[in-house]
Amino acid sequence: MPNPTTGWLAQAEDEYEHNRQATAGARASHLVRQVTAITNVLTRLGITPEQPAGVRDGALIPAVLLSPDPEQQTHGVSATYLENPFGDGGDVFLVVTDYEDPGVERRWGVLRTLADVAQARRELPAAPKPPAPNFSFLAERCAGSLRVDHTGPDAAAIAEAVNGVTYALLHLARVTGRPFGGA
Predict the structure, then answer these.
(1) Closest by alpha carbon to 47, among 58, 61, 63?
(2) Measured between alpha carbons, how far is 54 from 58 in angstroms, rounded to an integer?
(3) Among 108, 88, 97, 90, CA closest to 38
(4) Sequence-ordered alpha helix ranges (H) in 6-66
(5) Which among 131, 128, 108 has a CA at the least distance from the CA of 120?
(6) Which of 84, 128, 139, 135 is nearest to 104 (CA)?
(7) What tens digit of pLDDT does each residue of 58-101 get?
(8) Which of 6, 12, 39, 103 has its CA 20 to 30 A from that of 111?
(9) From the centroid of its chain, how far is CA 7?
(10) pTM for the full model?
């Protein structure tokens, strides 16, 4: 007896492959546009990179403008393309590599002039301040992890007490409008 799924399954596989290729093609052309944008800005400013921007394994490779130089105490500078959050374009940004720790890269800012490259080469941006922890979220998560039904009979009373205290603190923070421990 013939398999009844053969027809529609073959059609589904064909459609999947077509969609996959279309998505890969759109992604590739998007990356080429980003490389072109980087190249155009560098050309406009008269910058010849040590390594031009490109695409490798489906990812944008930034243009290396200057390598880090520990002897001169100057940072490495690369140019990359960052989309703006509204999805209607982006800018060519400078990324600075620390000469003391080549594993540290930080976004410097938009590349507008040659002076931006010279400034970025000498000034490593400060590390971004980590966000303050959301203690209310952490407390709720912690209370949710103390499952009374997963404990022994003696520990169940302790888990219920800890949960009760946690929820009491959260309630107090909500009622007073003053979150505890966070910014």
Answers:
(1) 63
(2) 10
(3) 90
(4) 6-45
(5) 108
(6) 128
(7) 889 999 999 999 999 989 999 999 887 666 678 999 999 988 88
(8) 103
(9) 42
(10) 0.60
